[in-house]
Amino acid sequence: MVEGRNGYTPPADYRAPDFVRQWSDSATRGADRIEQEREQRTRDGERDAAQRAQDGQRALEQSSQDAQRAAGQVARDAQRAAEQLARDEGRAATSTAARASYDLDRSGEGVQRGLAYSHGSANDALLRRRAQPPTQAPSSAPTPHPGQAPSAGQAPVPPPAPQQATPGVHPTPAVPKSRAAKGPAAKNAAHLGQPGLGPGFAVFAGLAAVVSAFLGYWIPVVIAIMFSAGPIKRGFTSGAKGIAVSILAILLLAAGAAVQILQVLPGASGTDETEAVTESTPVGLEGDPIESGTLPEFTLQAGSPVGGFGEANLDVVLPEGAGQLAVLQVDDKVGGLSASMYSGDQVVEFQYLERATGGTAQWLINTQAAFEQSFGDDLTSLVVDRITIMSEGEWTAEILPVSVLPPFDVALDGVGPGLYLYTGAGGEASITSSDYGNFAMTVHSSEFDYITAEIPEVQARTWPAGPFVIEVVEANKIDGTPLPWSIQVASP
Fold first, then answer.
1. Which residues cross the membrane (predicted)?
2. Taking residues 148-162, what's their average pLDDT?
3. pLDDT tens across 280-315, in order?
4. CB 326 within 8 A of CB 320
């Protein structure tokens, strides 16, 4: 003999009623089905998590490649801008040297012209002085004709001395025009006088580059560097003020380029953001409990609905007192909703909503306590005091007394599962299943009763006076559509 619960030992020839065996078989099938569904959800969750990890890895690799390409492009553009600046500086140096050579040539020509002018003036004065006739001495003697012999008493006239050149005085040569006026130095010197953008434009471009770099736009930074080369070059050739403005523009452009390079380099600024995103995983995703972390805690009592997202623990205060039946009503926004009822650390019930989209579900809790109570067993160890809600989205839960259920006293027609409150005086009840399928109904009265049917048939029962709860657990046709049923109570 097998010893029963609470010290009771049933007789050896005792055989449990059919409805108890049917209830046990149905409960076993339901538990197996729930376990299979939970395993399926676990596999789906693992598969989805792996897929999301692969997608995240691919996105991270793609962003890293894009950042490397952008950094390489910026480096190449900066290199080209530096080379262009070097070329411009070389041209500026060449132009400055040409201008200096031109000015030196002009000054040399002036010196030569001055020397020639002074030499020519000295020679002209000497020639003019020699061209004047010599001063004759006062005498009354006539001047003999050339070739005529001097007469007696006259002194002989000496012949004119040959003209001698003055030492150090040379004839003035013709001064040729300088060829520098027609060479490349003159052309470069002429270009220096043309108008252009000053170093102030380079400062404005540097400020624009800094702002663009902070906003994440690298193309304006490169354009600012390229178009600032000429104004910076002009600033270095325009005096102390221009040099100071050009240095300020170079510093601003360098700051903008540095900020942009730091933003596009992989791992410089996006690592912390990526880690922050990967750590904030929604609670209760796929409807499975999360092992790490602490779940949100709420107190659920009549008249005080609570809401949350994903998974949460609810400390339950039953409206009718410890161990009594109550209604758990949950409004789910997305779907994939389930609820586990605990008595201490023991799971006494599990409910799962088979629906892809959201909606409102009503579940009767403490049914195990009612079952034990119908046999006169102790129900203190089965009082539901905690409920764990698991969902894929947002939800709102509320605990209600059984008096809120739809009441009936004589007749009731329904389709599919549901909760109802019988308030009649009792009598002979006829429960009719109108089609082939699965029909299961639980009567939570002073005597617990479990009614099932798979073919169109009528089940007869004797019910006591109400109120008590009628729970239609399952009512589906063979094709899966809701099964119609009816209840008729005849007064004694």
1. 201-230, 242-262
2. 48
3. 444 444 444 444 457 788 888 888 899 888 888 888
4. yes
Encoded amino acid at 56, one letter: G
What pLDDT shows up at residue 292? 45
Mention every residue, 6+ apart, whose C-beta is less than 8 A from residue 32.
none
Domain segments of the chain: what residues? 56-105+193-264, 290-403, 405-492
**Looking at residue 320, what is its pLDDT?**
84
Task: Using the structure block, give the residue that is written with the tokens 């609810």.
Answer: 314
Instruction: State the pLDDT at residue 140.
Output: 41
Task: Pinpoint the alpha helices (H) of 306-419.
Answer: 367-374
Do residues 260 and 221 lie in contact, with contact meaning Cβ atoms separated by under 8 Å?
yes
**Phi/psi at 134 (5° precision):** -70, 150
Closest CA to 489 of 418, 414, 419, 425: 425
* pLDDT value of residue 303: 85
Averaged pLDDT, 207-221: 80
For residue 326, give every residue at least 6 positions away whose Cβ sits within 8 Å of its Cβ, in sequence order, or none: 316, 318, 319, 320, 364, 365, 366, 399, 400, 401, 402
Let me know if domain 290-403 sits in CATH 2.70.98: no
Q: 359, 325, 486: which is closest to 414 by C-alpha? A: 486
- The answer, yes or no, to whether the previous bond of 266 is cis (omega within 30 of 0) is no
First to last CA, the chain: 41
Percent above pLDDT 90 for the chain: 18
Of 372, 454, 328, 331, residue with least CA distance to 6: 372
Beta strands in 178-332, from DSSP E residues, in sequence order: 297-301, 306-317, 326-332
Q: What is the CATH number of domain 405-492?
A: 2.60.120.380
Whether 12 contacts 1, CB under 8 Å: yes
With a pLDDT cut of 70, the percent of the chain lying above it is 68
Question: What's the pTM value of the predicted model, to 2 decimals?
Answer: 0.41
**Dist CA 234 CA 200 (whole Å):** 10
Answer yes or no: is pLDDT of 2 > 60.
no
* DSSP β-bridge partners for residue 477: 437
Query: 86 CB contacts (<8 Å, ≥6 apart)?
Result: none
| Phi and psi angles of residue 43, each rounded to the nearest 5 degrees, phi first | -65, -45
On the question of a common fold for 290-403 and 405-492, the answer reads yes
Distance separating alpha carbons of residues 68 and 76, to the nearest angstrom: 12
pLDDT at 105: 64
